[in-house]
């Protein structure tokens, strides 16, 4: 397999350089009860505007009814590979408090929490792949979410599997070198 460690232009933490998003998950691997606790604890301690902590999660292990409901909402290529992950997590932003006051930073705060979750899972030997390709309204309906709860993304979690199990087009993407825009292209102004 192609090396997965990022070739960075400045030193970064090892877990950042080695984190990547596989599509090939080991369909036999099961996450033991309690094994994701550290990942969610990392998410819990993420920063948030006014300490509102507007993140909520639906956690499902492969084989459960909740997993099936989440899998049924996936679209496009995600339907081809995500079902072999050991778990899926729906990431939800609480966009309004219980009184209806808007939480304008909720999606940003959720993103930080999910980044913490992903990095902690990676540090514990698990792999993750974040997805936006799902039917948001189907998630809302399947789990009877209140209007203030907005599903933003889904994370597949598990142990890495063989790229050979993927359809050819996805296998090519799985084995392709990792790339990113140059750092200089991302910084608009640096005075």
From TrEMBL:
Alphabetical UniProt keywords: Oxidoreductase
Keyword Metal-binding: no
Molecular function, one GO term: oxidoreductase activity
Residue ranges constituting the Nitroreductase domain according to the UniProt record: 16-72, 88-158
Taxonomy, superkingdom: Bacteria
Stored Pfam families: Nitroreductase
Similarity section: Belongs to the nitroreductase family.
PANTHER family: NAD(P)H NITROREDUCTASE YDGI-RELATED, NADH DEHYDROGENASE_NAD(P)H NITROREDUCTASE XCC3605-RELATED
Descriptive protein name: Nitroreductase family protein
């Amino acid at each position: 397999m192609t090396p997965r460690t990022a070739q960075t232009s400045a030193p970064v933490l090892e877990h950042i350089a080695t984190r990547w998003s596989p599509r090939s998950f080991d369909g036999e691997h099961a996450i033991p009860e309690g094994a994701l606790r550290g990942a969610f604890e990392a998410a819990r301690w993420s920063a948030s505007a006014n300490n509102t902590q507007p993140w909520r999660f639906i956690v499902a292990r492969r084989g459960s009814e909740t997993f099936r409901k989440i899998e049924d909402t996936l679209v496009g290529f995600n339907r081809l590979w995500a079902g072999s992950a050991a778990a899926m997590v729906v990431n939800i932003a609480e966009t309004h408090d219980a009184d209806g006051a808007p939480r304008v930073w909720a999606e940003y705060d959720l993103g930080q929490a999910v980044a913490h979750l992903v990095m902690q899972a990676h540090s514990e030997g698990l792999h993750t792949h974040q997805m936006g390709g799902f039917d948001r309204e189907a998630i809302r309906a399947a789990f009877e979410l209140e209007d203030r709860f907005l599903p933003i993304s889904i994370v597949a979690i598990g142990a890495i599997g063989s790229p050979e199990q993927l359809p050819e087009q996805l296998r090519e993407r799985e084995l392709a070198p990792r790339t990113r825009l140059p750092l200089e292209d991302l910084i608009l102004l640096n005075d």
